[in-house]
Amino acid sequence: MKVAFFGSPRFALSVLEQLTQDHEVALVVSQPDKPAGRGMKVSSPAVVEKARTLGLNVHQPARLKGNEAFAEELAKLELDVAITAAYGKILPASLLTIPAHGFINVHASLLPQYRGAAPIQWALIHGETETGVTIMQTAAGMDTGNIRHVKKLAIHDSDDAQSLFDKLALLGATALAEALDKLAAGNLPSSPQADEHASYAPMLTREDGQINWQASARAIFNRHRGVSLWPKSWTLWQDKTLKVPALELASDTPVNAAAGTVVDVHADGIDVAANPGVVRLSNVQPSGKAAMEARAFANGYGIKAGVCFD
Questions:
Q1: Are 176 and 18 in contact, with CB atoms under 8 Å apart?
Q2: Residue 266, SS3 per DSSP
Q3: For residues 80 and 100, what is the distance between their CA atoms, to the nearest angstrom?
Q4: Which value, to the nearest 10 degrees, does the dihedral of the CA atoms of residues 291, 297, 303, 309 take?
Q5: pLDDT tens-digit profile of 101-142?
Q6: Cβ–Cβ under 8 Å, residues 15 and 7
Q7: Which of 75, 78, 207, 294 could disulfide-link to 269, CB 3.0 to 4.6 Å?
Q8: Distance (Å, rounded) from C-alpha 256 to C-alpha 308?
Q9: Which CATH architecture has domain 2-197?
């Protein structure tokens, strides 16, 4: 089929690569170049860089709403379907009916669960044991369109945001390929979402990384997995931010210590009481310092059993 692809970050690369193998990609649409990193060097989205190496036609419109020139160009392509995967902009309703089969979105959750911008992170934070990819018909509203195809994936304790992003990116490419084969054959199903079971996955904020010592050890561990890419786990030590790059679930068993209190310091790290259970800080980064092993931090800063984190 003749398709257009809308995507921006690395998550969308597997989908783009699969599309170029199976279909005619007439246009790739992505976010504009932006300054990034410490040097604020202007860089292109991962999808743009890949599309250029593949020799594809690339557009990076600053806005879509009211952009009649872009809508006219899209219409001239006489597309069979348009695909979105982590594009990052809301599509105006006026665009959705231009391709013959409309727009289809690759969403990294089992809709209607985790509608929104950060489904992978919030699935981890909430301790889900299963997720997947939903191929959805794009409609007005946030991830509310009809479900066209679904593929499921187990979540393991060893998964964090990065590993789950990588797995779901590959699964998304497979799911879309299957869906488009059925669409071309005229037998792709379409089912409305059960809105009463919807949940939401908003963009993370820095505050989402703060460790809540009053939560259970399991909940702290799950949140750590979900924020591992950004904003990462952190707590307060003497009124200063202490980043926690590496954190483990040490025990689910209650201990006789207030939440946030250090219960042990040993070669593997600093054990801290939760509510209930114990988490182990194995690597930390004090404000203005480089990351270090938690035991070295404990030795240098006088951390011992009975000390409390905020």
A1: yes
A2: strand
A3: 5
A4: 0
A5: 999 999 999 999 999 999 999 999 999 999 999 999 999 888
A6: yes
A7: 294
A8: 14
A9: 3-Layer(aba) Sandwich (3.40)
Q: What is the CATH number of domain 206-301?
A: 3.10.25.10
* 289-309 tens-digit pLDDT: 999 999 999 999 999 999 999
CB atoms within 10 A of CB 24: 12
Beta bridge partners of 83: 5, 104
- DSSP track, 25-72: EEEEE-PPPEEETTTTEEE--HHHHHHHHTT--EE--S--TT-HHHHH
**What does residue 31 show for φ and ψ, rounded to 5 degrees?**
-70, 155
Show the low-confidence residues of the chain (pLDDT under 50).
Answer: none
Amino acid identity, position 16:
L
CA nearest to 164, candidates 116, 135, 122: 122
When computed from its CA atoms, the radius of gyration of the chain, rounded to whole angstroms, is: 23
CA 70 to chain centre: 28
Distance CA 225, CA 238 (A): 25
Note if the pTM is more than 0.85.
Answer: yes
